[in-house]
Amino acid sequence: MSAAHDAVERIYREEYGRVVASLVRRFGDIDVAEEAAGEALLTALERWPADGVPPNPGGWLTTTAARRAIDKLRRESRRDAKHQAALMIDDDTPHEPTGVVEDDRLRMVFTCCHPALAPEARVALTLKLLGGLTVAEIAQAFLVPETTMAQRITRAKKKIRDAHIPYRVPAPADLTARLGGVLAVVYLVFNEGYLASAGDTPVREELTGEAIRLGRVLRQLLPDVPEVTGLLALMLLTEARRPVRFAGGELVPLHEQDRGGWDRALIAEGHDLVRACLAAGRPGQYQLLAAVNAVHTDAPTAADTDWGQIATLYAQLETIAPSPVVSLNRAVAVAELDGPEVALALVDRLDLTAYHPWHATRADLLRRVGRSAEARAAYDAAIAATGNDAERAYLARRRGSLAP
Amino acid sequence: MSQYLLSVHHTADDPMLSAPLEEMQPVFEAVGRFNDRLMAEGAWVFAGGLHPIESATTVDNTGAEPIVTDGPFAESKEWIGGFWIIEAPDLDAALAWAAEGSKACAGKVEVRPFQEEPA
Predict the structure, then answer these.
(1) Are A83 and B119 in contact (CB < 8 Å)?
(2) What per-residue confidence (pLDDT) applies to A306?
(3) Do B119 and A82 lie within an 8 Å CB cutoff?
(4) Of A82, A165, A170, which has the smallest distance from its Cβ to B91's Cβ?
């Protein structure tokens, strides 16, 4: 691979979502848009290495792809008499008003995350159409065979076409409800990248990077929705710790991390965003989680962590978005404030036996209260429940440090 | 504009099925108001409630001779109780009608697009 080739690939990946989304708006068909975008890439790969990258590569790709799509529709309209498609060749007027914000990618995100599509299809389509990931990459990220992922994406695209799922940002009144699903998809993509559910790659940077990029697009387009800002802040503050989260193939937990290795620029940006969204006075789950991470990244050493504030934030989260996972996280803060016995009582009440952090947290608390035999069993259960090798290595070391 | 079938699904343990007629009156009235709205907004194509599932007869003429059987084509605990056919610009509009229809008739509503006429 030449350097020029790599550069084309990189620009293409960055511009893909924009190119496809604008072609979908114009031609009203995802397959036409994707095929034309693919042909534009081939042309770019031929020309750019020799002629140089054009000053506006995104615009070049969109124009080239649009010409390809028009050529294709002309050929088809002659063959199949597809009058409707033929009309679009000359009709460059914008479609009907498209909602609160005019942005092709935002429209695509809402189309991909439509509640009429299955949740796993929403994630896959978002990554495919906006992130430009290949079906093979998406299948690998979610540990399903490529054929399964291909079928899932094909079915979703077919449903969009047959049921006439609109390419539209919902009306302001519906935005909050629908936005929840969009944010959930972006966060899911981020989390899968941040702690891969299996395999020897503990982190998948292309997924965390893509989720953050989508988060930035959403924030650019919906700057006044505090949860959008909260999610971006949460991802940035989490991402900031990534460089020191793994060492020697082993997970390094928060309190053991070398804070000198945290990305200060991301932390500063994250803190600004947390302040901005909380100022709106409408705290939601992403804002509160971001605030928790702001407290962690604010402490110069682990011992300086303001656990009281973290416990308060999780308690607030328990009221607005109660879940046993939130209660588990609050218990971790409670352990620091009121001691491991109190926290253990909270943790034992939670119905989370299928969730490996529950076993890992229990193991740690049992170790701290001196119940070594039970701690060992809990470490065993945690190790059995996680598919991430680096996390397994960490848990095995902790188990090994127990009294025999 | 596209056409959608909004079908209403009843289940065997639906309390509505055994309710006396006067208790059903508010449901009939709500459905009547919903139908009026569909017509007023130009979304109405056709609608109808169906007699209970016991009234169904199934005809199978895929073999040599037509076979007529008493009962629905499949034994199941859910069946269609009635339906609307509506015109809507897109799925979101159809789903909004379905949400209103479901509330009115106190049943689950499935939304399915009709196939387009071949060009």
Answers:
(1) yes
(2) 97
(3) yes
(4) A165
Å between A162 CA and nearest CA of chain B: 7
ipTM: 0.84
pLDDT (tens digit per residue) in A334-389: 999 999 999 999 999 999 888 889 999 999 999 999 999 999 999 999 999 887 88
Q: What predicted TM-score, i.e. pTM, was given to this entire model?
A: 0.74
Nearest Cα residue to A195 out of A360, A380, A318, A335: A360
Which residue from A81, A84, A166 is facing B91, i.e. has the nearest CB? A166
Burial-class residue A136 by CB neighbours within 10 Å (0-12, 13-18, 19+).
exposed
| Residues in A touching B2 (Cβ below 8 Å) | 164
Query: pLDDT tens-digit profile of B48-94?
Result: 999 888 889 999 999 999 999 988 888 888 889 999 999 999 999 99
A/B interface, count of CB pairs below 8 Å: 28
| CA separation for the pair A63, A308 (Å, rounded) | 56
Indicate the helix (H) or strand (E) that contains B8: strand B2-11
- Domain made up of B2-113: CATH architecture: 2-Layer Sandwich (3.30)
| Three-state secondary structure call for residue A251 | strand
